[in-house]
Amino acid sequence: MRRSIATVSLSGSLADKLTAIGGAGFDGVEIFENDLLASDLSPEDVRDRAADLGLAVELYQPFRDFEAVPPDLLAGSLRRAEHKFAVMERLGAKLMLVCSNVSPAAIDDDALAAEQLRLLAERAAEHGIRIAYEALAWGRHVGDYAHAWRIVRMAGHPALGLCLDSFHIAARDVDPYAIRAIPGDKIFFLQLADAPSLPMDVLYWSRHYRCFPGQGDMDVAGLVADVLRTGYDGPLSLEVFNDIFRQAASMRTAQDAMRSLIALEEQVGLRMGGPVAGLTSPPRPVVPTGFAFAEIAAPSAAPLGNLLEALGFVRTGVHAGKPVELWEQGAARVLVNSGSAESPDGPALGAIGLESPDPAASVKRAEALLSPVLPRMRGPHDAPLDAVAAPDGTEVFFCRTARPDHPSWTGDFAADRRGPAAAPGEITHIDHVALTQPWHHFDEASLFYRSVLGLRPHESLELPDPYGLLRSRAVSTEDGGVRVALNVAHVGAHDGSHDTAWQHIALASGDIVATARRFRAAGAPALAIPANYYDDLEARHDLGADRHRLLRELGLLYDRDEHGEFLHFYTETTGRVFFEIVQRIGGYRGYGAVNAPVRLAAQHARPRLRAG
Amino acid sequence: MRRSIATVSLSGSLADKLTAIGGAGFDGVEIFENDLLASDLSPEDVRDRAADLGLAVELYQPFRDFEAVPPDLLAGSLRRAEHKFAVMERLGAKLMLVCSNVSPAAIDDDALAAEQLRLLAERAAEHGIRIAYEALAWGRHVGDYAHAWRIVRMAGHPALGLCLDSFHIAARDVDPYAIRAIPGDKIFFLQLADAPSLPMDVLYWSRHYRCFPGQGDMDVAGLVADVLRTGYDGPLSLEVFNDIFRQAASMRTAQDAMRSLIALEEQVGLRMGGPVAGLTSPPRPVVPTGFAFAEIAAPSAAPLGNLLEALGFVRTGVHAGKPVELWEQGAARVLVNSGSAESPDGPALGAIGLESPDPAASVKRAEALLSPVLPRMRGPHDAPLDAVAAPDGTEVFFCRTARPDHPSWTGDFAADRRGPAAAPGEITHIDHVALTQPWHHFDEASLFYRSVLGLRPHESLELPDPYGLLRSRAVSTEDGGVRVALNVAHVGAHDGSHDTAWQHIALASGDIVATARRFRAAGAPALAIPANYYDDLEARHDLGADRHRLLRELGLLYDRDEHGEFLHFYTETTGRVFFEIVQRIGGYRGYGAVNAPVRLAAQHARPRLRAG
């Protein structure tokens, strides 16, 4: 299938958009009329530039408010159409999108609509142009594809067909099943967009919140599968109106769009189209099975070492060639890298390691989905360690730790032992990591974790921070072996915004009470939880006086869902990083989101430690 | 009336919020439960701190999902209530807000709701506490105040009354008329919020887009008038959930909230409440009648002078004591101030002068509405010139130019004449100014122009800029003598955002064709409009070949509405500033918004002149 995108989906001038679209490897482009009007490129310049970039001009759009008008308006509309046909000829565009009429002048009369569209198609055909008629979800009389199809069939002109748009179909919850009855050659064009579920008017939702397939909550793949069954062989074309993409860098958005299409084609089971350089069918997702490590870049290793010791970690190794320490407890491993220059705000989470059944295949998939593969900076004797960059810059490594079939990255560390000689700690593994995303790259991040790593997105939550609402969405493997919480400011930041770009590593403890006692006994700084929280907890839950007393004494937070209970506490923040210690009791599935506002307020109240 | 505000309306810690609320001169505060839970102040600390700040704790809120539950849930809810009563006693709060039940467990049974609320009121009364029952617009069974009132009346307990919330009433478009039938002493509390008209689900709208009265589109004053007729004598209390206020500086938001209440009280015809220091009833609005001048701060005066000359302006004066030039044409006056240090990006619009029938009263009103009055920096012989700062920092001066009853500011300028000796120009006056607002102060600006200057807000528009959507809202006097267009980025900016903080001065010409020819003949730089724009204009409007040719030749843009036609063109931008030349033909009322995307694209395409 050819891959196409509408220019309105990207930011910048029309020339910038074409360059970005060509650079991302698309085959074609929809020219959005306003982009042309505002451009100082002539239609001929656009045609030539697109051709140079290997882009077909697939569609000129939109032509509005044409059909089913009183006869006195028709002449003016046809005059308008002739002007547009002339522009299209200069542009080399052979297909014009006509949206269903939204004007109050439109008449509810299918026969009239068909008659006038037939007339338009006749005129178009004289210019070698075809008309793709699309039902806007908010069309005045024609609001779904089945209705548009009745009109197109009634008109019965070879130059008149349908444009289907996944957003309009899903937004009105129209059953896509009837698409199968439409002959594929009467579907002239297919536009694709996704959107998060948001409770608002469909027009407002469409204009501001569309996103690329896989970033929202709609079943775009299901619709595409229905359309392909008809024999449709036109392009898959993305058409997204998104407030944030309008602001973002066009090259990056175009690449994200291409990632979305590749993942969509895979979902639909499409073989890859023609010989597009560098694009091959991605290997199947290699779902990670757990965390191998989390790596913190810190100006100096000692303060973090003290914190880890207080949690029961032992320093088990020092890297042979770099100032990196390995700290272990159970299967939880934390690397402290004091050789990185990239922590202006003090310690920051720079990398995570994921256990992969096949690290090389993991990297190949990431590469096929356009993730930047990181150059390997390792010594001649280091184990192979493959990594890609997540959208927020976090390095994601694919590991096989201590498996006989693969060299283990831990072999690069010279054995060493520093830490408590006392009883081993209760921490068993990394439960999850939480990463604050740049607010204008959240959709991209969500698609990355879903398509590249095969994680499943959970519900979006809103968390009130004292200085603004946060949006939070977790992605995880089915069994919870890998869980990542993605957080983002709900609206954009401004100069005076309080920085909450925190990152945290949540460690699972088999006995959080013991871990909390150990941590306190070491004199380490836990985040102080206000007494008011515990007063409210007693109002909400009757856990018995002893348990309430214990939670209060140790500063533990509490949550429950229908599957089980959740206990957790936090260390204070150093730089951008803090640790959370969690204990899941029963099958609790959440992340303690109900307690996040209390945590955030406590964090803002504390001066941040710049230790490490 | 007492003035109150809910802590949830502001950003920061509970301690910060109280300080801001006290500082803005409120009499009382609603304590939002989550703010208390997340605070390390004990309830007693909060009580003492509020008292120190002169704030009564008017309400503790919200208590959720209580009434009309099956008997087995009631005991747990009462237990929860007893815990909250204990907190309220420590807090010194005597009134608890109970929201109508939204839980699926709630039963649609008014008698049961009344019986359980009566029980709650009995328990509350034992602690000296009263219950204010509020219908949430999205309550499961109780969604409007009339229904809540039936239940309260049925319960018939002296400690049980109503809380009315203007948002819930206006959002569901419930007729407020029936409020007059409620005895004033059964209305225990009145919460106020406004909101812009947005087509979305009421819960989502309420949680994200509320704003202070006068900033949105609801008739809050009408509702307050209805409530006051009942004899209600509790506080007027603001309760606003707003994504942007959550991020903003709390002191500034609190002051904006107070400005909103003062303006609301004036609308309702309330005399001012108790002797709050510094707060007196504002003098009636003194509506400005026109623009006296626009002042541009520029590193050097010469390049701007050349531009003004090309437009037909003449330099008529030089300030006696400062490096400020006065340029005039008809009643259009532009000051070029090369003595200000505040133009790091080159020329910027620093001040506007408005013709006021009574400058001193204008300033008194602005002061009463909490606008910063600017210190007078003038020489001993200068005419009095009064000014306040608008929310975006623009200085707004109140003038009486060349009137016998008042010294004219123009008297401070020594007569001078530099400029074309040729025919006088066609420009008659300043038509409007357009100011880009910081995106997180748009609501504040809208209230400032409305309440302080008495301008009327017009419809909000969305303008697509190549690098993001802009929101634009004009405010004007009834006769259009003063028009200000406020523009703002639709979503927040980010580090990579393209700066579009442009400001412009629109000059009315009686013959724009002559002005355009004069400008071109002087070799001055007009903003180039793409040929594609004119191709489209011919498709949209049939103006005759000659007129289309003239528009294209002179780079004029065109619009029409049902009242008339609009012709305009732009100069290139220097620093942050450009000029627009406009001609209104017939009674055209708009601002040529349909052409703004073409203008914005052309501006981004041009390297900005740093001249001046």
From TrEMBL, chains A, B:
Pfam families on file: AP_endonuc_2 (PF01261), Glyoxalase (PF00903), Glyoxalase_5 (PF14696)
Does the entry feature the keyword Isomerase, yes or no? yes
InterPro entries from the UniProt entry: DSD, Glyas_Bleomycin-R_OHBP_Dase, Glyas_Fos-R_dOase_dom, IolE/XylAMocC-like, VOC_core, Xyl_isomerase-like_sf, Xyl_isomerase-like_TIM-brl
Q: Please tell me whether the keyword Isomerase is annotated for this protein.
A: yes
Gene3D superfamilies linked? 2,3-Dihydroxybiphenyl 1,2-Dioxygenase, domain 1, Divalent-metal-dependent TIM barrel enzymes
Q: Which UniProt keywords apply?
A: Isomerase, Lyase, Metal-binding, Pyruvate
Chain residues that bind a divalent metal cation: E134, D165, Q191, E239
Q: Which domain of life is it from?
A: Bacteria
Tell me the Gene Ontology biological-process terms attached to this UniProt entry. Answer: 3,4-dihydroxybenzoate biosynthetic process
Top-level EC class as recorded in UniProt: lyase
What is a GO molecular function of this protein?
A: metal ion binding
Q: Which residues form the VOC domain?
A: 429-572
What pathway annotation does it carry? Aromatic compound metabolism; 3,4-dihydroxybenzoate biosynthesis
Q: Where does Mg(2+) bind?
A: H432, H504, E580
Return the EC number: 4.2.1.118
Entry cofactors:
a divalent metal cation
Under SUPFAM superfamilies, the record lists: Glyoxalase/Bleomycin resistance protein/Dihydroxybiphenyl dioxygenase (SSF54593), Xylose isomerase-like (SSF51658)
| Function in brief | Catalyzes the conversion of 3-dehydroshikimate to protocatechuate (3,4-dihydroxybenzoate), a common intermediate of quinate and shikimate degradation pathways.
Q: Which family does it belong to?
A: Belongs to the bacterial two-domain DSD family.
UniProt xrefs under PANTHER family: HYDROXYPYRUVATE ISOMERASE, XYLOSE ISOMERASE-LIKE TIM BARREL DOMAIN-CONTAINING PROTEIN
What's the protein here called? 3-dehydroshikimate dehydratase
